[in-house]
Design brief:
alpha/beta, 7-stranded mixed β-sheet, 43% helix, 16 helices, Aspartate Aminotransferase, domain 2, 483 residues, Aspartate Aminotransferase, domain 1
Amino acid sequence: MKLLIKQIKEHEKIANLLEINAIERQHLMNQVFTFADEYIESLSEARSFISKKVKQDSLKVKSKTKSIDKILAIFKDEVTENGIRTASGGHIGYIPGGGIYASALADFLAAVSNEYAGIYYVSPGAVEIENEVINWIKDIFSFPKSAIGNLASGGSISNLIALTAARDKHKIKNEKIPKSVVYLSHQAHHCIHKALRIIGLEDVIIRYTQLDEFFKINSVVLENQIKSDKKNGLNPFLVIASAGTTDVGAIDPLNEIAEISKKHKLWFHVDAAYGGFFILTSKKDLFKGIEKADSIVVDPHKGMFLPYGLGAVLIKDAKAVLHSHHYSANYMQDAATDDLLKSPANISPELTKHFRGLRLWLPLQLHGLKPFIACLEEKLLLTRYFREKLKTLGFNVGPEPDLSVSYFWYPVKGNQNEFNKRLMDYIHQDGSVFLSSTILDNKFVIRMAILSFRTKKATIDKALTMIEKSLKKTKKEFKINSD
């Protein structure tokens, strides 16, 4: 026993290195917060995109320890000074989040307290905050109080939860799968296809519905497809619409699709991951019908400007969700008396559940809703401003966008796609502001996705200067007169 106690004490001495004392904590906090402050203050002037090779050796985990100064230096050089600076207002290429500071503080508190937000019995307060955020989102989208929801890591898992519920509600399994039909748009996010594969529906029939000139689902054609499939002995069960597509920010005719889905007894799902929170703005009318959906997905880490890692799903049929996700185990018997729908673990693939809700709840308590709405309205106006300025530089722009995603290209005779690809290369080489590209109707176009809370008029003006400079280089290379 003496030897055993001696061994315990020896290991305890080394293990105690993980419990940092108050003086050391203060030192570490000072270093980290100084780094964070300097990083934030530098964002407005820093390049938004840098492409360089990672020094992998500096990232290797070795037995030798490093000081916090050295660790932060590595983090700066290999992480924050490489790739897209996603916290920057100059990130307008992919749909950004931005990462408001209040959410970072919330994540710090969640990590320090290490509250487990999966089971009500374990941390009632944390779970109530998660559910209060869900109730707040229900109110925004006029979903009934009886609907249930979950805060997931993002749109991918949120969509997976919703589509699993649709599968189980309509009992799509075994020999029924190859005859079942899902209707969606070519503009639907690729995570929808991943979700269908993951939940065993890879062999369902996918009907890509015809789109109008604004890249929205043609509801008349959709209904005709449903009728035809029913007539031919198939099993239509799911329609997926978008409220803000990734490529062009389009909102499908939600109300018309909702009525068609109800008429034909199909599950109506709306992916509003990007665009959902614009329902709080002057664009509210475009979302009419979203309240009729059986399920919706929305990402607070997009439209509420939070750090990456918070998506939300709302579903009206609680029974279908519980069928998919609720499971009991002997070691969980102390939580058996919980209201099943109170515990997030019962309505999600996750049992271990990070306390995500705090990163939205705390900013809402601290700032209120008004600054978030103003920020969204600002992005809509900046999109209009950017498009108008691009036209004065000779660019063609896509149709008037529903939200804050749009696209443009420079019209030239000859190989227009090659010209715009080269223009994109020069824009990326500059990196002052980050833009991306996509292909629409075989046309190479450059995308803007304006959503970061740090994107301001000055950012757009900087982007325009960069584009004009890159355009001159491209014209020179292609021997096009710049007059």
